[in-house]
Amino acid sequence: MKQAQKYVYFFGHGKAEGHAGMKDLLGGKGAGLCEMTNLGVPVPCGFIVTTEACILYYKQGKSLPEGLDEEVQTHLSRLEESTGKRFGDKENPLLVSIRSGARVSMPGMMDTVLNVGLNDITVQGLAQKTNNPRFAYDSYRRFIAMFSSVVLGIPYEHFEVALDDLKKSMGVNHDTDLDADALRELVKHYKGIVESTKGAPFPSEPNDQLWATIKAVFESWNSQRATTYRKIHKIPDEWGTAVSVVSMVFGNMGEDSGTGVLFTRNPATGEKVLYGEYLPNAQGEDVVAGIRTPYPISKDQDTNGTKNTLEERMPAVYREITRVAAKLEAHYKDMQDIEFTIEKGNLWILQTRSGKRTALAAMKAAVDMVKENLIDKETAILRISPDQLNHLLHPVIDPRAKKEVLCKGLPASPGAVNGMLVFTADEAVKRANMGDRVILVRPETSPEDIHGMYAAQGILTARGGMTSHAAVVARGMGKCCIVGCSEIRVSTENRVAHVGSLDLKEGDWVTLNGSTGEVMRGIIPTIDAAMGDDFTIFIEWVDAVRRLRVRANADTSKDCEVALRFGAEGVGLCRTEHMFFAPDRILAVREMILSSEHEGRKKALAKIKPMQKGDFAEIFRTMGERPVIIRLLDPPLHEFLPKTAEEVAEIAREMRLSPEAIKAQRAKMEEFNPMLGHRGCRLGITTPEIYEMQVEAILEAACELKAEGLDVHPEIMVPLVGTEEEIVFVKACIDKTAKGVMDAKGVRVSYKVGTMIELPRACIVADDIAKVAEFFSFGTNDLTQMTFGFSRDDVGIFLPVYLEKKILKVDPFESLDTQGVGRLIQLAVEKGRKARAGLSVGICGEHGGDSDSVKFCHKAGLDYVSCSPFRVPIAKLAAAQAALEDRMTAQPLE
Amino acid sequence: MKQAQKYVYFFGHGKAEGHAGMKDLLGGKGAGLCEMTNLGVPVPCGFIVTTEACILYYKQGKSLPEGLDEEVQTHLSRLEESTGKRFGDKENPLLVSIRSGARVSMPGMMDTVLNVGLNDITVQGLAQKTNNPRFAYDSYRRFIAMFSSVVLGIPYEHFEVALDDLKKSMGVNHDTDLDADALRELVKHYKGIVESTKGAPFPSEPNDQLWATIKAVFESWNSQRATTYRKIHKIPDEWGTAVSVVSMVFGNMGEDSGTGVLFTRNPATGEKVLYGEYLPNAQGEDVVAGIRTPYPISKDQDTNGTKNTLEERMPAVYREITRVAAKLEAHYKDMQDIEFTIEKGNLWILQTRSGKRTALAAMKAAVDMVKENLIDKETAILRISPDQLNHLLHPVIDPRAKKEVLCKGLPASPGAVNGMLVFTADEAVKRANMGDRVILVRPETSPEDIHGMYAAQGILTARGGMTSHAAVVARGMGKCCIVGCSEIRVSTENRVAHVGSLDLKEGDWVTLNGSTGEVMRGIIPTIDAAMGDDFTIFIEWVDAVRRLRVRANADTSKDCEVALRFGAEGVGLCRTEHMFFAPDRILAVREMILSSEHEGRKKALAKIKPMQKGDFAEIFRTMGERPVIIRLLDPPLHEFLPKTAEEVAEIAREMRLSPEAIKAQRAKMEEFNPMLGHRGCRLGITTPEIYEMQVEAILEAACELKAEGLDVHPEIMVPLVGTEEEIVFVKACIDKTAKGVMDAKGVRVSYKVGTMIELPRACIVADDIAKVAEFFSFGTNDLTQMTFGFSRDDVGIFLPVYLEKKILKVDPFESLDTQGVGRLIQLAVEKGRKARAGLSVGICGEHGGDSDSVKFCHKAGLDYVSCSPFRVPIAKLAAAQAALEDRMTAQPLE
Prior knowledge:
The structure is a homodimer.
Chain A: E1 8-12, E2 15-16, H1 23-39, E3 46-49, H2 51-59, H3 68-83, E4 86-87, E5 93-94, E6 96-101, E7 112-116, H4 122-130, H5 133-150, H6 156-170, H7 180-198, H8 206-220, H9 224-233, E8 242-247, E9 258-263, E10 275-280, H10 284-289, E11 295-296, H11 310-313, H12 315-332, E12 336-343, E13 346-354, H13 359-371, H14 377-383, H15 386-392, E14 396-397, E15 405-408, E16 410-413, E17 416-422, H16 425-433, E18 438-442, H17 450-455, E19 458-461, H18 469-477, E20 480-483, E21 488-491, E22 496-499, E23 502-505, E24 509-513, E25 518-521, E26 526-527, H19 533-545, E27 549-553, H20 557-565, E28 571-575, H21 577-580, H22 586-594, H23 598-623, E29 628-631, H24 645-655, H25 659-669, H26 681-686, H27 688-708, E30 714-718, H28 724-745, E31 752-757, H29 760-764, H30 766-770, E32 775-778, H31 780-788, H32 799-804, H33 821-835, E33 840-843, H34 851-859, E34 864-867, H35 872-890
Helix pairs in contact in A: 4-5, 5-7, 6-7, 13-14, 13-15, 14-19, 15-35, 19-35, 20-23, 22-23, 23-27, 24-25, 27-28, 34-35
């Protein structure tokens, strides 16, 4: 037999038997009530039945632990003593709320019953005491409905239907139009429902009500929704729930009562002022229901001059609440969101928690609190979520603006922009050159639209998912983008976009909200990004803490400038293929691809080289002595081939071939699965001329800058390596070509040759590859594609189903799959470093800007992440948080 | 200083200082000569300079080891003593051959100089002694040319040109038309070439010749071709080469001399008879040159009645050679290929080695030798290569037949067949039904051609590689197939195939040799497969030894019958998609795919179910209680959609939709990378009706057979699983459906649910998957695709370049990449077995029939391999050999 044990913890009048550290035993809610009580904050008295009692209840086949009965009874008496009320008393009845509360908040399963203790007799006492029979019967009918649904399992709708019928028969619209008599009738009707459904009368004995509710809360732990919630959130079944029994307080006992909510700082701006609202003579649910307009808490807030602020109407309570708010913020060291009730001039705090705030407020509050010595820098860093930071980096729609949402797509790249619709990349460039703001709308984008995407303020596509071409490129450019907006039908030919019956024509104004996916008509005003002084100070703290370096993916010197502005420490990925699409090069590129002879290819490449060299020189000049990784050509060559008849005709003329010959060549190059085809270093091996040209361009640019005195450090990256032999072959070509250039120029440049790790095989043989490669960069987009066997372009059909059915928890292209892809990365890092001590390892996929993925990279011991310039601060913050979390694990808190 | 050491080993007159076990020191050739000498076999005397001498030569910066000079001199004296000839003697000169010989045979680098010791004086002695001045000068001019090219590095062509000039000036065609005087002139001319090229006369001193040649052989170890050869074959540079110096014997010293080659058994049939040919009064090179027709060795062989057999002409020598051959075979315990020379009635054996033989001979010899107690069963098993076995399983072209080869493609599936050309699958079926033998020729095949491929004797395609659709399916069917025959242009519309200027029309006869890729005109006779009694006995031994089980990939009951005939122990993969293409089903399949509603899909599936059920019932009936793995639908649904206008019209009529609607639907389903798209269990999750129908069909068939008394064991396999959640979801659907069927039928069937492991991620999380999956089957085709990022259908462009440049040693789709894919497999096996003890693990990719891959599967601890029925014996043999190799590693030979 188990020894008698303590199952109930009391709190009240400044003393509690528990505290914040006892969440496991008392649940989060119970521990919080105890903590506040101990702090001297006015909290209604009550007691907690522990999670252990719940666990034992189940262990014993759903019977209450021995001794619990007496223990609860004892504590109920203490409660009566404390409140001066008595449970079931006909004159001054004690009413209690009964709530569940697990270790962690489980919003899906909270069962609550208020006003426990009401019956036909006590309701009269309540009516007399409050001098408000309507309130008393309203409380009574609410109690019956709540208890019946939660405890007795009678569908709540039964009671709703009865209420509606009553309103209809009385010809009123609102619940509040029902007077005390009507509600008394309703109570009768409700009891009838219970009796006819359960074959027994509604329990009128308060003690029966109490025990039935406690048991019901225990049972709710194993309800289906709770079980499902736990499964999804991996919460152990063995934890159990605690039960809190708290004396009711009422804010509707007259003009000296009231209820409200306040924040210890302004949740929109972060300013350090009390901020909130209240309603006199009201209950919490009245505030929520919005029946009356609440008043501001303070005079400062009273911009409409109501003169009804709490500060003016109840100055003593206001002083008290100011004191309590300051105490709670100082105690919890964070901005608090506080619920309070005033009962006959007495302030009661019902709940406090960290307040939700805008990104701006979060930043200001965090920086201020450090200045106020409330928190340290590390805490400030941990308090801002990287995703929140994202909001500070892009303009947003003015929340006060009126807007007409036409349709909604996927929010592919954040920010809010407006502009005139254009349907082609060329038109976008033309109008942009004339100074117009344009939005490029396309069925979907392809690499040939790049110049138009650059020129546009934002991009909108009818097809494609979060990782479609448009989405990836736009994020890279930090450009607002909405994709997969399937309600839009785009007719590029007629330059019109149909949305339902509406036709949007070229030149029509639209506004995009890339953070929500909303497409709006006309010019909706926006508010600029807010990277102010607080941001700068904050990022300095972040930089001081993180271990992981943060580079940017940047293809042009313009990208590099943006990257530096956002604090990038180098370039982690410079893709050379976008350069190939430039209008002044694409013809030569096509000539090169379509030449069957080495000589023809060399000739065409010779035309491209000076331009590539110019690109690289500009990039090196912008980045200075920071490291720059340049990836050699990666995509399959057929991506560059002419598509339209005019393009075919043009290249046919240029090469003196028939259009048919061009088309035949194009058909021959088509692939069933281009993702798994002739690309990456496979091109560099079958057609070495291309890489030779690129390496010459890189080294010539580097040598010339070196001669000018700038010590550049190009890092040449070979894509899609899967075998040691590939990197051996390509590196030999690179070294030979580089030597040729350096000998010719009479200049030595220290360059490195490394590889993308983006094939599962490359991870497995990473030790062999590291014998040759001087650095690794994980291409996690492709690695995810190969590891899962998911084509990024085709996943749109089944991925939504997978997410809905919880087959996948997150889109693995958005957040790195640590369980699968992540293990391959860890394996590769381990093997790579074993073969080459100090091997530099980074990541340059889309994941480099995702905070969870960045944290994984920190844990996996990577040297850097590289992401789009606009996500550099996000990556930095995630890296800093990962470093701090490391420290906390290493040195447990005292 | 190093102690004086033994660098030279003598052999002669029945006694040698070395033996077969000393290959490391004496080289393979030298050790063999010693071994034969010790056996009492008549071998010319000689001595070996050791590999250690060679190694020291390099260590000392290319100078000869101390003491080697005297040691060689001593042994040269022994040689003189033994032969009764003297090196450099003007009357009875000793001539020697000097050859290199490493531990292992290195055919690319063997340097040989014959007749060392000849000069203007000794040549006269030789002329007198042999009474054949022409022979003497012919030997002399050969010696000069050989020595000059091997030792002096003068291009051999110089001497060839001079010889040609001489023949022209004398108006003769053949070398043999030149008499002694002409050859004497040629010798003079040759010496002139040497003197003018090297600026010094040809070395006439025999000792100089000897040492220069020994040094040249040492040097040849580090020649470029030898170094390259070693790199490719991973032979250590430190091994060095030995040098053999052997006294020359001549078969051209008159009618009591001769030279020849013999096998100890018939190399074509394996019959135990001496088999060979010889030429009287001739040298080895005369036999090779084919100037005279050699005579048979024995009377039995003398089918032409020449009466010139060795048996008749030199009965004593014949008896002697019979005795020696028996001794050598008994000693080496294998059929020997023996080179011999008869010098004045004396038999000399110059070399013996294991004889090359046909597959048939290999099988017969191996089985016979076990019966003769010459070898044990294990040795017999190790002696047949699995690929050799392949030849016994398919008909071959009659080697005596005349043939006209039109063109050559890739030998995709072995066998030799003839038939009438047809251009469509339907025509193939039509003609085959009329009893015609047909060859189906297509630009390339698709799943819609399956019925035609079944009907045809063989398949020929103009496009595609060794793993194209045609190749894979044909191998699966065991059907002769040639693919990628690019010289053929197929015009299906006009029913004509162009080969150069030749037009092959429908009905024209052609013959295919699927083992060589040759396409021949007309009917070339073939010889049937030879699976006789020896084969049966041999496979019994194999079955007793192997641990790995061997199943077959079989989609129909017809396939299953073939599989059983070839000894399959179950079905490792029954693909259900081919069933969907049957003409009586494809319409319903298309209806199902094109229905947007659940109900429409259910209706269409209901039409297919009875047919699938019938298929499964037949398969179960054929396989009895053996295990049968049925894979649920795998390919993307768009593969089944109508392609031609007629097909579109047909399905449009059936579904009462417009053809445009059908085409729009088809366009919507197209994928960029179908291999990484909406297929496998992804279908089973988004469209569960399909798998439900298939599981119902499987279980209904199984229940009905069980009710009939046949205890079937269906194993249901879920394709393309990459996450635990997928298999959880699909298994739940399967179990629910199965329960429904079994409850309805009132019968219990013991079925299993397992999964393909074909994604890298599946390997990494194999432990999680094994918690749910009851068996694993590695789909190594797809696993190879994903691990390498290689699309099987697109690899044809760069894979040949990769093989040529040695980036890859073998096509990873032919032989499993043990270093990359193999490690993932090992990881998955380990993790899977950890999570589920005794988990059954197999492989069902194309690799299951590749002998090296099978051996890997044995080592990786797999339970079974599954391959095409026709490769079952090959897989069995490979499995047995792997088991034996295991034992040998475990118990080192005594």
